[in-house]
Amino acid sequence: MMWVYQIIDILSTISEGFCLYVISRCLCKEPRFQTTINKFIPSIAEIMITYTLTWFTELGAWKMPLILISVIATLKICYKDTIYQIISAAEVWMIVASTLLEAIIYSFGHWLYGNNQLVMVEGQAFTRWEILTIGLAARLLILGIVYLILKNFKYKIQLKDSVILTLVFMFAFVCSILTVFNVVNLERVADLTLYISSGVLATFFFIIFMYSKNILYLREQEQRDRMQIAQLQQQFAYYQEKMKDEERVRSIYHDLKNHLLVMENRQNTEETRQMAETLRSQIADYEDYVHTGNEFLDIILKDKAAKAREKQIDFSAMVDFHGIDFMEPLDISTIFGNAIDNAIEASENLPEYKRLITVKAERVRDMLLITIENNTQPGNHLTEGTTKKDRFVHGFGIPNIKKAVEKYGGQCSFQQEERVYWLKILIPCP
Question: pTM of the entire structure?
Answer without folding.
Answer: 0.55
